Amino acid sequence: MSKITKTATAAATALSLALALPAPAHAWGEKEQNLAALAAAGIVGTLLWQQYRRQNGGVPVGRAPAQNYPVYTAPTYQQPRYQQPRYQQPTYPQPGYSAPISSSVYSTPAARAFNSYSLNERRAIQSRLQRAG
After folding, report:
1. Which pTM value belongs to this model?
2. Which residues of 104-120 are buried (b: 16+ CB within 10 A; e: fewer)?
3. Who contacts 30 (Cβ-Cβ below 8 Å, separation ≥6)?
4. Which stretches within the chain are classed as H helix?
5. Nearest to 1 by CA among 60, 65, 83
6. CA–CA separation, 23 vs 20, rounded Å?
7. pLDDT for 87-108, tens place per residue?
8. C-alpha to C-alpha distance for 99 and 76, rounded to whole angstroms
């Protein structure tokens, strides 16, 4: 835009806003004043848009940077490779005695920790627990 056009546009914008905002302040409420300001801004924006279209010959469009798109190549057939299957001998558990799995209260970690104390210490712990409830 030329310097004269910019100056004229700025002057028109300032003049339209100066006339639109204070004039209705006496007769309108706050909502109507906001509406007038929006209308003035819309008019100025439309004028600027039309001027831009006249100067540049159309709608402003940003140019996208040139992109290198991937080139399609047809897939090539590859012969599958054959591998001779290999036999693996299965392993079986050896028969014999296995200890039974105990699920007793006395085999829990808490019970083993408690039984690691001496008889007098266990009695003291039990009496404290009894007093605590």
Report:
1. 0.25
2. eeeeeeeeeeeeeeeee
3. none
4. 3-20, 30-56, 109-115, 119-132
5. 60
6. 6
7. 988 888 777 777 667 678 888 8
8. 61
